[in-house]
Write a structure and sequence with these properties.
This protein folds into three domains: about 5-85, no CATH class; about 115-190; about 220-300, no CATH class. The protein has helices spanning about 5-10, 15-20, 30-45, 65-85, 90-110, 115-145, 150-155, 155-190, 190-220, 225-230, 235-255, 275, 285-300, 310-315. It is elongated. The two termini are about 65 Å apart. It is an all-alpha fold. It contains 14 helices and no strands.
Length: about 325
């Protein structure tokens, strides 16, 4: 049974994994920390998980109930929100450097294979069960073939049955060895599932803080944005595209360049988008991000697509 005592214990004696993610509880600003701690305690009790060092919670497997997946996503969201709030003081240079490091770490971890490993083990175990049944049948067939009446009727019968029994036993031994090798490989491999999950959460925290900086940057007009985008239109649809482009500019400046709005234009001697975000970088990831901003900015100067004649006629009726 989930009780208020469960959540109270987590707040008074928080597990090391929770503190590592959130930091110590600040009595003057406890709201977000408390919400995350409550979700942490409820998740572990509801789904009967023990606290693991360095891990917030084991990710639900593919066969876990839908309710567990929802609880887990809610827990992650509250943890990310609380950690981002506690680290809201991080500056654009800090955020850009941290995001680069975390992205590189995520790439080095590579894709997780936990579900694939479990599938291979299950397949080998099913094959072993089937082969054990086949061995029992082959042993029974060999015994029948070796009885004197059957030996007289079929002289080669016992030898053929013996060879078949040996072949099935050999296949069973090989399959058991494959399973043992596969399990030893899994045991020796680092826990990439937990590493990838934790790194992904850290990236989500950085993205959350970057979003806060973007919101703050957009509340103050900046000449470099006007140079890149022109004045904000009054037409609602055009204004929406302008806002999207302005957000893309600030995200690139903060997350990629590590520049806040107070640092001014990136390339003062140019016009257009390069005035705000600088020239196209040389690395592949930087080029993709720069091109996304350029495409978004270009879109605000494109005329709205012409409406089909049939739709216009339909509205005029």
């Amino acid at each position: 049974m989930i009780t208020a005592r469960t959540t109270a214990n987590v707040k008074t004696e928080p597990p090391a994994g929770l503190v590592a993610m959130l930091g110590e509880r600040n009595p003057s600003e406890p709201t977000r920390w408390d919400r995350a701690a409550d979700a942490y305690a409820l998740y572990h009790q509801r789904w009967e998980h023990s606290h693991q060092p360095g891990q917030i919670a084991p990710p639900p497997g593919p066969d876990a109930p839908a309710a567990q997946h929802r609880d887990y996503e809610e827990l992650k969201g509250l943890l990310v929100e609380a950690r981002a709030y506690n680290n809201r003081h991080l500056t654009p240079p800090d955020l850009a450097a941290t995001q680069t490091q975390l992205t590189a770490r995520l790439d080095s971890i590579g894709p997780t294979t936990g579900h694939l490993d479990a599938g291979i083990s299950a397949q080998l175990e099913r094959r072993i069960t089937q082969l054990e049944t086949n061995v029992a049948r082959a042993r029974q067939a060999f015994g029948e073939a070796s009885k004197p009446p059957n030996r007289r009727r079929t002289r080669d019968g016992p030898e053929l049955a013996r060879r078949h029994l040996g072949a099935v036993r050999s296949e069973l031994d090989v399959t058991r060895a494959h399973l043992a090798d596969h399990q030893a490989l899994i045991a020796a491999r680092p826990n990439r599932v937990a590493d990838r999950e934790r790194t992904s959460m850290e990236l989500a925290v950085v993205d959350n803080i970057i979003d806060r900086h973007i919101h703050q940057a957009l509340t103050r007009p900046q000449p470099y944005r006007t140079t890149a985008l022109g004045q904000r239109p009054t037409d609602p649809a055009a204004a929406g595209r302008w806002d999207t482009a302005a957000t893309a500019i600030e995200r690139y400046r903060i997350a990629t360049l590590g520049r806040g709005p107070d640092t001014g234009p990136t390339n003062p001697d140019t016009h257009g988008v390069t005035h705000a975000i600088g020239p196209k970088p040389s690395d592949a990831i930087g080029q993709q991000r720069w091109q996304h901003v350029h495409t978004t900015v270009t879109a605000i100067h494109q005329p709205a697509p012409a409406q089909p004649l049939t739709a216009a006629l339909r509205r005029s009726r």
